[in-house]
Amino acid sequence: MAEEEDLGDMPRVVGVLSALLERVTERNDSAAELAVALAAAPASAFRATTKPDISVRAYMSRIARFAGCSPSCYVVAYIYLDRLLRRRRAPSVDSYSVHRLLITAVLAAVKFMDDICYNNAYFAKVGGVSLPEMNYLEVDFLFAVGFDLNVSPETFGHYCAVLQSEMLCLELERAPPAPARAPARLHCYLADQDDTAAAATSTCTQHQLAA
């Protein structure tokens, strides 16, 4: 699983979510923050003892390639991660935990959203964990979010707008720099889904996932 995989033929939400999680992971991997987190954070099933040798981008690509789930599942997985991280004593999203959090959130979203999905044994192989680990992570995740799995159309639409604004910010980052452009932040929001890319730049703010 160490090889990088291409996201070019994947749903755009996959690339956006992987970029977002990479930013959060890099931020939380800073030496000072990680030292504090490791000292203060409670033991978590999502924290690996060593850093996986696969990037968030490649891991996300692997999930998208083999899980066979609908694009909406990735939006719902993002919602579940946000709900988890808003709770007290939530695990920090860093290089030691992001992969397990991601595969478990997608698994929960697939079971909630799709009529047909692969079982835990299959997801365990995709995620590079054992079946007992996958089963335990799923149960731990469900309790951690308080079994709050229902997503209203309004909530789904809101998070779609957040991911859309993140996509616009990523596109602005790839464009030639302009003198008046503010540096990209961790996450972005749009005041209105129909705003222009220039308006999106002015409304970039840090998202809860950074916590």
UniProtKB/TrEMBL annotation:
GO terms for biological process: cell division. Keywords: Cell cycle, Cell division, Cyclin. Pfam families: Cyclin. Coiled coil: none annotated. One of its GO terms (molecular function) is protein kinase binding. Belongs to the cyclin family. This is Cyclin. It comes from Zizania palustris.
